Every structure is written in C-alpha cells, then in structure tokens.
UniProtKB/TrEMBL annotation:
Residues 1-26 are annotated as: Disordered. It comes from the Eukaryota. One of its GO terms (cellular component) is cilium. PROSITE patterns: MSP (PS50202). PANTHER family: CILIA- AND FLAGELLA-ASSOCIATED PROTEIN 47. The keyword Methyltransferase does not apply. Pfam families: TMEM131_like_N (PF12371). It comes from Geodia barretti. The keyword Metal-binding does not apply. GO terms for biological process: cilium assembly. This is Cilia- and flagella-associated protein 47. Residues 104-194 form the MSP domain. SUPFAM superfamilies: PapD-like.
C-alpha cells in the first residue's frame, strides 16, 4: 500500500513523525487467504481517516479539519505454497480513491457542566445541545453509562446541519463530591444495528 501526495495536510503528517496514515487509514478483510482457480471472494475495505492535530479533547481543538482526498494503492501478491512471491506476474494492484469529510460537532453549553450541591436521590437535569455543523455527514451517537448520571436519549441520529438536545440528569446516590466524565461516541454511520 502506498499513499500519494494528493490532499492538503498529508505532508504535515509526515513531518510530525507519526505513523504514516496509510498504515491505519484503510483495512481489508480478509487480509489473507487462498483462492482456488476461478474462485471469487468479496473483500471488505474499511476507510477510517484520522485527524491527528489535537493533543487531547475539546480544550486543545484548534480548528475544524478540512476535506481530504486520498488515493491509495492496494497490492495483492500471488504467493506459492512455500510463501514465496511468484514471478508469474500474478500480482494485482488496485487503486482506491476516497474522500475524508470532517466531523464537526459543537456542544452548547461547553463542558464542564456544573450541577452544584444536590441532595442525595434528588434528580437535577441540565440540557446540552449537540450541533452537527457538517453540511454533508449525518451523525450517530451513543453515550456511555456513568454512575449517578443518565442521558436521554442515550443514542440517536443528528442529520447534517441540525441540532439535538440531550437531557443530562444527575441523581447522587451517595454523599460527597462526584466528578465524572460522560463520554459520547460520535459516529458517521449507524453501527448500533451491526
């Protein structure tokens, strides 16, 4: 697999000394196997671009990533039973073109949320608006369970350029300060049905 210098920002990845993007940007399943003569097999290609300039979370997020176009080449090698590459010219190279569109999400109000002093077993609710600022990508989200906190809805869909309000309810079940981090997984395809 090789990456061409096609999209803006690819040179920056190389300068940062991080793992080259082509090593984690696309995967092929199954990644190895045997084909009998005239046998056909479907391969699943998964394109998963990463935006790597943020060091940690929302506080270090500087700007919305831009659209990036990629051309990747997948090379399939024909090998004999001794696992040696054949000289018969049975190798195959396939070009794959893909576009990475940015996921642009905004939370209002910005974290952290303060629930203040709350009596035990007395729920208090705050609302957080999740803005899908992308004009192209629908977003799917799921929230992780956190003790003393509930989120409604716990998962859902936000169409492009739309906003969804989440209700976060804090119901302390013990005394003392309770600090927690609610994680929201933002996805661009609905993996909940898989």
């Amino acid at each position: 697999m090789a990456l061409t210098e096609g999209g803006p920002g690819q040179e920056r990845w190389r300068e940062q000394g991080s793992t080259p993007p082509h090593e984690s940007i696309i995967s092929v399943l199954p990644s190895q196997g045997t084909l009998l003569p005239y046998e056909k097999r479907k391969l699943e290609l998964t394109f998963a671009p990463r935006f790597v300039s943020s060091d940690s979370g929302w506080s270090h997020f500087q700007a919305t990533p831009t659209r990036r176009d990629y051309t990747l080449y997948l090379r399939f090698l024909a090998v004999d039973t001794n696992r040696e590459s054949t000289a018969s010219g049975g190798d195959l190279e396939v070009a794959v073109c893909a576009t990475a569109l940015p996921v642009d999400v905004q939370l209002e109000p910005s974290p952290p949320l303060q629930f203040g002093a709350t009596p035990t077993m007395s729920p208090i609710t705050q609302h957080v608006k999740v803005h899908n600022k992308s004009d192209t990508l629908p977003l799917y989200f799921t929230t992780h369970r956190v003790p003393h906190y509930t989120c409604h809805p716990p998962s859902g869909h936000i169409p492009p350029s739309h906003t969804l309000s989440l209700s976060l309810t804090f119901t302390p079940k013990q005394l003392g300060p309770l600090n927690a981090r609610l994680l929201i997984d933002i996805l661009t395809s609905d993996s909940r049905s898989e």
